Amino acid sequence: MNNNSAAIWIWYPGDYEIWLANQMNNCRTERGAFFPHFWKMDSHYVLVEFSKKIDVGEAEEIEIAVEGTFNIKLDGKLQFGMPKKFTLPTGKHSLNIKVWNQAAVPAIFVNGKTVKTDNSWKVTYEDKEWIDESGKASDTSATIYMAAEGWTNFDAADKLPSQYKLATEEHKAVTVTDVQGGQLIDFGKETFGFLRFHALSGKGKINMYYGESKEEAMDTEFCETLDQLSVDGNKVTDEALAITSSTEEIYTLANSKAFRYVYVTKDASVDFKELNMLYEFKPEKQRGSFKCNDEEVNQIWNVGAYTMQLTTRECFIDGIKRDRWIWSGDAYQSYLMNYYLNFDSQTVKNTSWALRGKDPVTSHTNTILDYTFFWFLGIYDYYLYTGDEHFISQVYPRMQTLMDYVLGRTNKNGMVEGLTGDWVFVDWADGFMDKHGELSFEQVLFAKSLETMALCAKLANNTADQSKYEKLAANLRAKLLPAFWNKTKKALVHNRLNDVQQSQITRYSNMFAVFFNYLSPEQKQEIKKSVLMNDSVMKISTPYMRFYELEALCAMGEQKQVMKEMKDYWGGMIREGATSFWEKYNPTDKGAQHLAMYGRPYGKSLCHAWGASPIYLLGKYYLGIQPIKAGYSEFAIAPNLGGLKWIEGTVPTPNGEIKLFMDTKTIKVTATEGKGYLTFVSKSKPKASKGTVEKIDADKYRLLIDGKEEVEVNYK
Amino acid sequence: MNNNSAAIWIWYPGDYEIWLANQMNNCRTERGAFFPHFWKMDSHYVLVEFSKKIDVGEAEEIEIAVEGTFNIKLDGKLQFGMPKKFTLPTGKHSLNIKVWNQAAVPAIFVNGKTVKTDNSWKVTYEDKEWIDESGKASDTSATIYMAAEGWTNFDAADKLPSQYKLATEEHKAVTVTDVQGGQLIDFGKETFGFLRFHALSGKGKINMYYGESKEEAMDTEFCETLDQLSVDGNKVTDEALAITSSTEEIYTLANSKAFRYVYVTKDASVDFKELNMLYEFKPEKQRGSFKCNDEEVNQIWNVGAYTMQLTTRECFIDGIKRDRWIWSGDAYQSYLMNYYLNFDSQTVKNTSWALRGKDPVTSHTNTILDYTFFWFLGIYDYYLYTGDEHFISQVYPRMQTLMDYVLGRTNKNGMVEGLTGDWVFVDWADGFMDKHGELSFEQVLFAKSLETMALCAKLANNTADQSKYEKLAANLRAKLLPAFWNKTKKALVHNRLNDVQQSQITRYSNMFAVFFNYLSPEQKQEIKKSVLMNDSVMKISTPYMRFYELEALCAMGEQKQVMKEMKDYWGGMIREGATSFWEKYNPTDKGAQHLAMYGRPYGKSLCHAWGASPIYLLGKYYLGIQPIKAGYSEFAIAPNLGGLKWIEGTVPTPNGEIKLFMDTKTIKVTATEGKGYLTFVSKSKPKASKGTVEKIDADKYRLLIDGKEEVEVNYK
Questions:
Q1: A35 chain-B contacts, CB cut-off 8 A
Q2: ipTM score here?
């Protein structure tokens, strides 16, 4: 809820987020061609009614700003024209504003002494209010009204939502080298923005070839993105490239691109003095931090944070060079990292709205079966980390319709299989993984999604749904082990075909079953040995699934092992020159092999959000901080050095933070909101500066943290 | 299907029609306030892919025009930029064009020697074509492709669908009178268009009060529509009224209005020389005609045709002054009249698409229960009159989802009742008609709608649906008489409450049951006496339901009686000065009483499409021409003088016409397509110029008309 007293622009929940995501998703290009996505692009309601019951103590003039054609109705009576000011008479009134906008989202901003737009206003796309022959208005008690949605940054009449832009700042090139008749310009690290020419003159063409690597920029035939500029005098004539900012001689390209290098060739008849870039970014307050004694780990955390900075935009996108799209499985990881970095709840909500889109549901999220489930999981985590019940009640109707879609496609066992048109993704391991029949991985995610539905039904006060989904979840949970657990292999098998267990074992379902707590402690230990630490089981080569693999190991206390793998894998990318983390990394690849993917020499994204998982792992499993109850009202702190000498850092909470320092003798904790247990291992009885340390197991202790002061614990 | 060889602009079926209808529906104003409708306003798919498998004999350059941001893919490979020309290489290829447009409808126009856009192109809003890690494209066999839709008038690259406008021509005032310090301008008859000021000068305000009547225009406080213009020099400063056309001194208002009179007041400091209007209309070829010996009847037909001309626009609207909206029950009658006047199939399709909108269905059509059913009935008639199977297959998916909505709201008896938020309209007779429980009227329409579903399922080759809907229709049909027929009253009762017949008898269900042939011949005769010709049953005061009342009487051969009522009722309006037919007419009203409705002194519309029913009745039941099989492949001609001395006229067919002349001795028929029987009554054996007259009953004869020549029959 919007708790401050400032007026904000408001709209129908999800509509602006979907509209903005369309603008963003449609920025993808491939070698100069527009490249939109292949699933349904939804749109906003073009006609929306906003309303509020008001009670003004004295006549009050309100300022009205609207995006669209609109009318104002006071107590059922239409007012003349589309006024910018309007005086509300004393007393109780119904104020209704109805807006039509096809190109952008119907939105209003009302600002008076007491009457202001915020999310206490109601909105509907269909008021169903008609007038009968006698002039009597209809019964609108069945009309569905939602709470309006708005962002706190749109807090003035002239801050139009349709005009929203990310921030920019000009960055200069680090080196400029003449190569093969062109210029190779290096901006020093992976970056994202608009090329900007200074002192452009003459007449002719300029070609720009972008590269995340030097190899890509120099390969004019195969680089993934490029631009071409036609200059005539100081006028740019190529209409495909509009000019967004210009003085006498500065030209900024219209579409931002991802690159570290740009290779520029041009006709001799055209010239420019300098090529800079306008770095485009979402201003974020970095509220989380991590430091330790190992500089390589610190560097991994920093490169992860920078990867997140580049991929946190209007929404969380996958990677900045190629797709620039919102992908549910990718976004789900961004959410988790975000809770340990910026705690930017708005961007989580934006991304969830955008991914879900509008009804009717005509495909899985991004067409991918597993991505539908990650969407539900993202809602679950959002509530757990933020405690924001309001969002759950707003989004719940779309959770229902998406789950209806899933349930409408289950087989005779009540399980999901990929049907024609469904992408069963799991991970990039095509050719090594069977995608037919009932995949255990999909059923595990499906079960968790049903549990999420039950939880959210409860929050939305829908007890019928709650019991329906609890039953469905319990039924599916009960089938998981009988269907997939193989006693000989001591693992969940990858899939079943025609009710018969297949022989392949993959890591995917096993690791999710571990941290979803779907297994007995014995089974978890068996899986650790038979799958997670078993080199004969197909290795994971994407940071995407490594995220969960390492999380599963951490959840079983293998922080030392994970630290080693983190340094090998993410450290490995850095040693290969990475300034942001990659879409996929195979340590045995050499040179340009690292750049290829999808059958294209530079198909791989070198800045991919899912590459930044150390942010999450270090916060949740080394600093050891996580919410136990919604919004950190209760938290757990179980720090683990994982072989390091000391660690320190901050984990943001909705309205505060938890700070932790740990070395081999001391733990210091400050939690500015919530309460919860600090749990740790000590060989002898520890001492705390405040509170009573309880022994809970051999060498295992806990201490209740409840209060804003720092608590220091001495242990051995 | 588009059978000519010209390239046309194409789009996703229904999308442009919905978009255009939004523009049109949103032109309603009430005393200067924007007045959009109260049901969901749908929108187009913002991202659409067009595709075509082509085979070119020699390399061919195509011209490409697109509304939106787009890409071109040839054989799966994206092409650079957004070219206006593109050369297709020799051979077989896949050509795909993907377009994004938020503000207007994604549409393309491709024109080459052999490759041209038409409705053989496929479209989808979701191609589900992704690329796996190895670069392999997905299986898109489950992707839903529709045939593209386009209008034949958009046949050049520069005829952009988004720029479509109705035609205009300047009309001058008939009289200008100075009254009470202002000018009362009379345009001589009901009209529709944009006011246009000539030689506007000075600085100040001009107020324009519109009236369909003199009383309304002069009543500045209560007239339904008005405009205000702020002039500064020769600049108009009021931004609510944009200028659409201007030379040095001509100002045309931005929004068209309906009126006969305009009362203009102004500041002394502002002046103009002349106030004209730009008449706005849809150019139509009037293919139907009717004439007879009675000049009053001819005038009724002509005023009806003018009423239709004014209300036939981008779609068929209800009335031109107030709503200017598409209402399903109103449109249904416009369709029927249109088949006897312009046979403008495109506008029927446009209106059907616009009324139906997009999924999900969240309310009845226009929120009105009966209007949902009239939508289905309109589809049924469209097929019967035009034989256009292609449209049925295009619209069938939306028929399914609308019927699903209806079926999801039936009660334990499988019948419909008005639930909260459903408008049970029937007719304007609020206060005199019970709208609770199961109305017989709604069930009769529901049964016919289910029959329509079964028919269209068959046309769409959906045999499962066909049998499902046949069963549902038969079940409901079987319940109608047991539920509603009252043997004592010899009529269908108005409604049932809690399974109990209520006592009220109204005309509505009885007359529909007659011409839907849901009754035995005996029951029909009983109803004629007990209801239709029974003055103690509540009279109908809207032309809307008089349409069906008179149709029911005509269907039972009461043309003479109907002719009398037509002359009384429609003749009555003309005697009251009507230049177009009204929304409602009560012959006992006096003076300004004729103008009031909805509790407002000028609430009534004086140009309402549903007022024009004589067009339909005279064509179908006097000229006696109607299709028996789809598209007039078989027709029936059963002319009836109805007390007149002679009648003559033309009824259009999809690609031809049927001409008929009849007096008391002769019938002349020319049918340029189809075949069918001419049926007539003669006291003695008639003679025909061609073919063999068969006797089919006492005094009843028939003659097969099959051939394009005129056939003359002499009878007594």
A1: 71, 78
A2: 0.95
